[in-house]
Model the fold of this input.
Amino acid sequence: MLNTEPLNIHFTIPAKDHLGREEVQGQLRFHAEHIDLHWRMTGNVFTKGPSEMKLVAIPYPAVAEVSLKKRWLRPTELILRLENPELVSEIPGIEVGRMVLIIDAQSKKAIEKVNDLIDFQRSVFLLDETNKRLDAMRAES
Done:
């Protein structure tokens, strides 16, 4: 039985500066067609509270690589590399389409399903693209 509920992963992108001005909190929602990346800057003394939530829709074909890094006594990291870095260029702490997300404790169970889910959605997309090319070749003949 397929689960139709979207998978939710809560994450943090730590600030690169020592004052913590660019720390990002967010949530990944894995839908059937795309991934919703909800994010905002956390509040601190300099920014007077958290910024407003922003949304980036990431199609599954744009995800080039997914890896999960678990280390003993360290936070779990989800590393997403995107084909098009422009999708997430506005988010601080992301280097050329490579997102290193520190997974919150509440999402530890859900993170186990992410790799299989993205692989499945990408393979569905690739199968659809192959079928379109085959149909186009058959129409030419």
